Amino acid sequence: MAPGQLSAFLKRGAIWGFIVLELIFFSVAGEFLSISDKAFVNWDNMLLLLKQSAPLGIIAMGMTLVMVNGNIDLSVGAIFALAAVILLDSMTWPFMAAMGDWAIPFAWMFALLTGVALGAINGFIVWKTGVDAFIVTLG
After folding, report:
1. Least crowded by CB within 10 Å, which of 30, 34, 64, 130?
2. Cα 101 to the chain's mean position, in Å?
3. Tell me: the pLDDT tens digits for 34-70?
4. CA distances from 54 to 37, 82, 106, 137 (A)
5. Are 33 and 93 within 8 A, CB to CB?
6. Is residue 47 a part of any domain in this protein?
7. Are 77 and 52 within 8 A, CB to CB?
8. HSE-up of 62 (CA within 13 Å, CB side)?
9. What's the pLDDT score for residue 41?
10. Are residues 61 and 128 in the same domain?
């Protein structure tokens, strides 16, 4: 290994080593220190955690792009919550209830369009006025 490659490898792989160490620790601690009969780190529980954290991961990827540009968007949580309300509420609208199972894709479309429209409004206001995104999304 050439000089400097080991330190570069350690810098890149340090986070993964920490994650593996953390998983080993919680597996062992969960097995021996748990008051329930099932360990925390099992396949079903990890899959459930990944499913539940997927929406936050998607939001975090979008926020990463905003923060790389030097802005902070405070409205992502509120827009996410409003889109969820639109998704669930639209299933009870009379014309949607008559569609049967086809209401589900349309409800998703309404929720996505709500998020896109509100994000576009925020972006348009930031672009045209030049006001910082922190202030615009705070309002």
Report:
1. 130
2. 27
3. 676 666 667 888 889 889 999 899 999 988 988 898 8
4. 28, 18, 21, 23
5. no
6. no
7. no
8. 15
9. 65
10. yes
Cα–Cα distance measured from residue 58 to residue 4, given in angstroms and rounded to the nearest whole number: 36
Spatial CA neighbour of 105 closest among 116, 115, 118, 90:
90
Count of domains forming the chain: 2
What mean pLDDT is predicted for residues 83-99? 89
Whole-angstrom Cα distance, residue 11 to residue 18? 12
AA identity, residue 53: S
Which secondary structure element, helix H or strand E, spans residue 35, and what is its range?
none
My answer on whether 10 and 66 are in the same domain is: no
pLDDT of residue 85: 96
Q: What is the DSSP track for 78-97?
A: HHHHHHHHHHHHHTTSHHHH
* 1 pLDDT above the threshold of 60: no
